[in-house]
UniProtKB/TrEMBL annotation:
Family that this chain belongs to: Belongs to the peptidase S41A family.
Keywords: Hydrolase, Membrane, Protease, Serine protease, Transmembrane, Transmembrane helix
GO MF annotation terms: serine-type endopeptidase activity
Positions of the PDZ domain: 125-189
Species assigned in the record: Neobacillus niacini
EC identifiers of the protein: 3.4.21.102
InterPro entries hit by this protein: ClpP/crotonase-like_dom_sf, CtpA/B_N, PDZ, PDZ_6, PDZ_sf, Peptidase_S41A, Peptidoglycan-bd-like, PGBD-like_sf
GO cellular component: outer membrane-bounded periplasmic space
Lineage, top ranks: Bacteria, Bacillati, Bacillota, Bacilli, Bacillales
Protein name as annotated: Carboxyl-terminal processing protease
Coiled coil: none
């Protein structure tokens, strides 16, 4: 290695110099009288003893100040010394230092700035670069709560019915109040096949619901595409990871061979990811030289990022967004909208307009912090506001129904908000319970029995376990079949393809 070699060469040169000095001394003559020599030797020993004694007596205090020369940390050092010398139990120095860093980060009151332990940092890196095991949901700390930004497509979280803006109040009975998103991720993740129970509070509902989820492998497959008829392809990008732009290009080439003449790009429930990937993908659709975004630092200095590729603005394209579209997906949506005139369909996006970077420490812990804010090509800052689509289209009302806990038994004479959700789900998929007020009567029981028989389940008229899971699964299929936002996007695209 060059560094080692340079150090070795330096040591060799130093040895040569020392040898040359010794040689010179051998050739010269130094005359010191014996008495004077003894006095000098005694003085050196005395001086050495004095320095050693001083260091032993005052060295502990000097360790704190030597090399710092930063008065703003005096209070921190004083607090550390006070605890170290006076606390009634022996302290874990590493734990105190990590706590101090974590405290500084929390004082910023920025949900996107986090100090991560070694384990948390490993989770952070794996969520971007490879597959991992867990429930498959992007979360963030928002207003003191751990909130779901978006579940990953096909994940246990999506199958359990979790949705953007759901609040996770506890995990296996342990409250998440006051935790950072990184701390919460460490608790929620776990080995494939293990069970975790989340307590979910959905905005607009009265009572929290316990949701048991079986953890599984969460592959970072981020691009899904298919032809939906009439030369139109739908491609969903679920996040922006290391290979997303490469995978999207391959998928588009594949669909073109299948006859694609127009594209619906689906960014719904896409929580974002890597900035470089957002720029690369935006460049596929934005004409070369036109702006993709601007990044503004704390001094107001702005850096512009133009499209680097031959983006084809004439390519018929419509983009789908919703309240789960955040960060990098908002960069892409804003870029194609403002710099390529592409229509946006769906709901107002999440609203994350800041840029983060991550720094690893030597012990493999990590700090992720906000470095700048990003602006749309027209200079708009969408933070906490989101991007409003050109054509606003809601999903059917049943798409936002509260989750039902499969472990809870809903039967004749039951009365609860979960019974009300079950009744609305049954009606949506074609099994009319006769009422939707939350009271489980004979008609509701008959509807449950009919549903169970149609799905090869024991027709006992009781909603629990496999019956509840199957009901929510069928509702999800219904939402996909009756996707009003996709239907509108296809309609708009057909107009542009004429």
């Amino acid at each position: 290695m060059k560094v080692v070699k340079a150090l070795d060469e330096q040591n060799v040169e130093q040895e040569h110099t020392e040898q040359e000095q010794v040689t010179d001394k051998k050739t010269g003559y130094v005359h010191i009288k014996k008495f004077h020599f003894i006095l000098i030797l005694f003085f050196l020993v005395l001086l050495s003893t004095g320095i050693t004694t001083f260091a032993l007596s005052f060295g502990e205090e000097k360790v704190i100040t030597v090399g710092t020369e930063r008065s703003e940390f005096d209070k921190l050092y004083a607090a550390y010394d006070t605890l170290k010398s006076g606390y009634f139990e022996e302290l874990d120095q590493k734990k105190l230092i990590n706590g101090a860093i974590d405290g500084m980060v929390k004082a910023l009151d920025d949900p996107y700035t986090d100090y991560m332990s070694v384990e948390e940092a490993e989770n952070f890196h794996s969520s971007i670069n490879s597959s991992f095991q867990g429930i498959g949901a992007e979360i963030q700390e928002k207003d003191g709560h751990i909130t779901i930004v978006s579940p990953i497509k096909g994940s246990p979280a999506e199958k359990a019915g979790l949705k953007p803006n759901d609040i996770i109040t506890s995990v296996d009975g342990k409250s998440l109040q006051g935790m950072t998103s990184s701390e919460a991720v460490t608790i929620i993740r776990g080995k494939k096949g293990t069970k975790v129970e989340l307590t979910i509070q959905r905005p607009g509902t009265d009572a929290p619901v316990k949701v048991p989820i079986i953890r599984d492998d969460i592959p970072i497959e981020t691009v899904y595409g298919e032809m939906v008829g009439d030369g139109i392809a739908k491609v969903q990008v679920t996040s922006f990871s290391t290979n997303t732009s490469k995978d999207l290009a391959a998928k588009l080439n594949e669909l073109q061979k299948e006859g694609m003449k127009g594209l619906v790009l689906d960014l719904r429930q896409n929580p974002g990811g890597l900035l470089d990937e957002a720029i690369s993908i935006s460049s596929m659709f934005v004409p070369k030289g036109k702006l993709i975004l601007k990044v503004e630092d704390r001094n107001g200095k702005t850096q512009e990022y133009p499209s680097q590729n031959d983006g084809n603005s004439d390519f018929p394209l419509v983009v789908l967004i919703d309240k789960g579209s955040a960060s990098a997906s908002e960069i892409l949506a804003a870029a194609v909208s403002e710099s390529a005139g592409v229509k946006l369909v769906g709901e107002t996006s999440f609203g994350k307009g800041t840029v983060q970077t991550a720094k690893d420490f030597p012990d493999k812990s990590n700090i992720k912090f906000t470095t700048a804010k990003w602006l749309t090509p027209n200079g708009n800052w969408i933070h906490k506001k989101g991007i409003k689509p050109d054509i606003e289209v809601p999903l059917p009302e049943y798409a936002s129904l509260p989750i039902i806990n499969p472990d809870k038994e809903l039967k004749l004479s039951s009365s609860s908000t979960e019974v009300e959700s079950a009744q609305k789900m049954l009606k949506a998929i074609g099994f009319d319970p006769g009422r939707e007020d939350g009271f489980f009567d004979e008609k509701t029981q008959a509807a449950v029995s009919s549903f169970q028989a149609a799905n090869n389940l024991p027709a006992d008229g009781v909603l629990k376990g496999d019956s509840t899971i199957k009901l929510m699964e069928k509702l999800r299929e219904m939402i996909e079949t009756n996707d009003t936002q996709l239907q509108k996007a296809v309609e708009v695209l057909k107009e542009e393809m004429k």
